[in-house]
Design brief:
The chain is α/β, with parallel strands linked by helices. Helices cover about 50% and strands about 10% of the residues. The protein starts with a helix and ends with a helix.
């Protein structure tokens, strides 16, 4: 891009990435996945990859290219495309068909660039239904997978499923993981967090629902494991949380919750009661004439 501001940003990001690489080596930290921020800058108010303005869409592509390169530099396992503003507020002033066609062109270019330069990195898409837009094109797992099929990149993507985003779509973490699993083992990562039932936006709370974690792990187990995928908590302290201790405690609580859920899933698999009950429910299809 000829954008001078982007050139300055690129140099800053690359310098920071070199520092991070040294610190990761020093402390033995591995990068699960990288991503981009096509959300905060006012230029993305009407979208990023779907923007009606070609220069914004091009700038979005350049940002993804840079962050993909940095992810490669840091030996990241995966790269997440997160369309925080890829959607619309009103179809009176948005051409959905044109925006999806423009996005398809850029998605294919991203896949081609990744294959040519970072073949070991797994591309992920993170579904999100709304907020700040009224409707986002990646609203849930099924919508994302259908889009990938349509534009010919189905085999190139898996999904990074977030609990809070599932809730914004009126769904559950289990549902989204289930859909990803049965459509070719597409669970590529989990943001293990939750929202607030009375709130219609992304609250990003530390996960504290044991049943959610249990049923989520069950889908991962049925897929055969996580593979390259990672679980992170994508959560932040509440506004009233003012000490680092509160954030550490919240993280430990969420980690312990998911660890306990994993152990419980293993016990469930060994006793086989739940699987037998579910299989028995459909025995009529094996014993009765249809």
């Amino acid at each position: 891009t000829a954008d001078p501001d982007f050139n300055v940003q690129e140099k800053q990001y690359l310098a920071q990435a070199k520092l991070l690489k040294n610190l990761m080596a020093e402390y033995g930290v591995k990068l699960g996945w990288g991503t981009e921020n096509l959300f905060s800058d006012p230029m993305y108010a009407q979208g990023s990859l779907n923007s009606p303005y070609p220069w914004v869409a091009a700038r979005s592509g350049a940002e993804i290219k840079l962050m993909l390169e940095i992810t490669g530099m840091l030996d990241g396992e995966s790269y997440v495309l997160w369309g925080g503003r890829v959607g619309y507020r009103s179809l009176v002033v948005n051409n959905m068909e044109k925006e999806l066609d423009n996005m398809a062109h850029l998605y294919r270019a991203i896949v081609d660039y990744k294959k040519a330069n970072f073949p070991s990195i797994q591309l992920l898409e993170e579904p999100k239904a709304k907020e700040p837009t009224i409707f986002q094109y990646s609203r849930d797992a099924a919508t994302c997978l259908n889009f990938f099929r349509k534009i010919g990149v189905y085999d190139d993507f898996k999904l990074n499923i977030e609990g809070n985003h599932a809730e914004l779509a009126g769904l559950t973490l289990e549902h989204e993981l289930y859909v990803a699993r049965i459509n070719g083992g597409k669970i590529g990562g989990i943001d293990a967090n939750s929202g607030v039932p009375m709130v219609g936006w992304d609250a990003d709370r530390y996960h504290e629902n044991f049943v959610d974690a249990l049923l989520g792990w069950r889908q991962v187990d049925l897929q055969g494991g996580l593979g390259k995928a990672v679980i992170n908590h994508d959560a932040k302290p509440r506004r009233e949380s003012i000490t680092i201790q509160e954030k550490v405690i919240g993280h430990i609580m969420a980690q312990d919750l998911w660890a306990k859920a994993l152990l419980t899933v293993e016990k469930m698999k060994q006793d086989g009661v739940m699987d037998k009950m579910l299989n028995d429910k459909y025995l009529g299809y094996q014993t009765e004439d249809m």
